[in-house]
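INTERNAL AUDIT FORM
Audit reference: QA-55
Scope: verify that the stored structure record matches its stored sequence.
Auditor: D.O.
Record contents follow.
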Amino acid sequence: MKKKKENLKSFVEDMRHELAAKLAISQDALDVFMILNNANQEQFPDSLTKCLKDMKQNLKDKFQNTNIQTKLKNLHMKPQNELFTRVIGCGKQCPFCATPCDAGGKAHTEHWASLHRPQGLGRYIRVDTQKLVTDICSSSVISDGTFRCHQTNDQYHPYKDYKKIFLDWKISPDVSLEASNYWKYVMTTYNQGFATKYNAEPAEIPKSWYSISYKQAEESLKESFKLKDPDLQPQKNTTSRPGVVP
């Protein structure tokens, strides 16, 4: 800004206006300059420029010599804890497949997940065969299937009415053939490992799951976390009889 002004007050007001988008200068701070209203206008910009350069260097030196870890420990609010809470979510898991709630932080009353997985990964097994369940709950909730667990007093309950049991969960219907390819791939690849871990029999993997490639699984994961709701239609699902392994 190179303009000749009648006095220093006009100069400073113009400078404040020019820097408004980058630097907030309060009116109280501006009033301090009024005692310099008759100062030499040619000398003032040079002095101001030098002052700003010195200030920049001082701040740079201060930050370089500041131990960030010590600074964080002395803050009343811990930024690292707030960031962790927002990223990791509330810690709640889907009651069927155990996928974590995607709602950031803890300031929400309804839990949801963008990508559900086969219920066997949430330790659901079929009572009659003791095999891990391959049903995906985002499809189950629009099926004619039933489930039972300790929340239902071990009585069968329709998936369609899951909200009566799990009031704080919202499971969006998803019958896309590709939406859960990632977890289908994972369960197919590590079926025996999950069965051993959960003290159950390996799941009966649908034949179509074996044709899912690593690349398809990766693309499915990327697409799912765009958080776009697809235009979905209901799909029939066989009635399952799962139980919960504690």
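Auditor finding: record pair retrieved intact. Residues 227-246 have pLDDT under 50 and may be disordered.
Action required: none
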